[in-house]
Amino acid sequence: MTDSDAQQAALLALRDKIDGIDAEIGRLISERAQCAQRVADVKTAAGATDAVFYRPEREAQVLRKAMERNSGPLSDEEMARLFREIMSACLALEQPVKVAYLGPEGTFTQQAALKHFGQSAVALPFSAIDEVFREVEAGAVNYGVVPVENSTEGVVSHTLDNFMNSNLKICGEVELRVHHNLVVSDVTNVDSITRIYSHGQSLAQCRKWLDSHYPNIERIAVSSNAEAARRLKGEWNAAAIAPLKAAELYDLRIIAEKIEDQPDNSTRFLIIGAQEVPSSGKDKTSLLVAMRNQPGALHSLLEPFHRNSIDLTRVESRPSRSGVWTYVFFVDFTGHKDDARVSETLAEVASQVADLKVLGSYPKAVL
Fold first, then answer.
1. Concatenated DSSP letters for 217-258?
2. Which of 195, 207, 252, 301 could link 183 by a cystine bridge, Cβ 3.0 to 4.6 Å?
């Protein structure tokens, strides 16, 4: 047998083994899907109309276990993504999850929604953050996805402001690595670009790159990067900063990849819904605290957390709309509101402030 014949025989043997493994994977996925259908039957057996099919804490636990069991060579993140899609497809057999997100199609928020809920979710775009809140409050969708902060440009004020007047809860979070690309249409004359469209935050996140490569080009801020991509059709002298998904959606060509100034540029998104989320074992809690603007106010807010060794991950202040001298603090920390130490700390803080509202306890981002 020649070396070529031996190689071919080895490949055929490996392919046969892969075919067998694929058959077993397919059988197990079908078995899992059948279990999901039975779960739906159990939940609806009593005729309840408010059965909860999507459980954020359960999903997080399953993904964490998948990563803990992973022995390679796939990365933990890739393994979790595979399980996410399996769970998404199985959940759709119980009841498809309807999710509102800040649109239009092709935005990073859509990517975050699909990353968290999987491709089988029904994702619906809306043009403003307050519209996403209203859709969830009205019960037209199960959940909403909104941006809350960027590692380069800071918080998204519109999202924080909406929580002041909403009774919705934070049910989860998504952390998305954000890559920006310079894109053009099929009619663009690349040597004659006079304007670049993008969302204002994306322009800021790519400022140094733009100053270096297109210092004298007009920069036009629009409502979203997807809208920037959409505008290019028919404009021979324009380019846009957009994510890969938007470039694919609008059939655009990327002429420069990953032009963000910070290579670790990322955005955090919140999942909003009407339900309280039980502890998953690795959780975060978000608060809205109203305080009088007086000396030592911030110290009195933070000191109980420090004394009880609760890790604060974000503190953001916003002027209150209800009073000239009142400020509102948005606080994130590690732990669940039902944990004994956290519960005692919140009770102490509540006794010292004008108002304390728990926006939600939810699983830490897994992927």
1. SEEEEES-HHHHHHHTTT-TTEEEEE-HHHHHHTT-EEEE--
2. 252
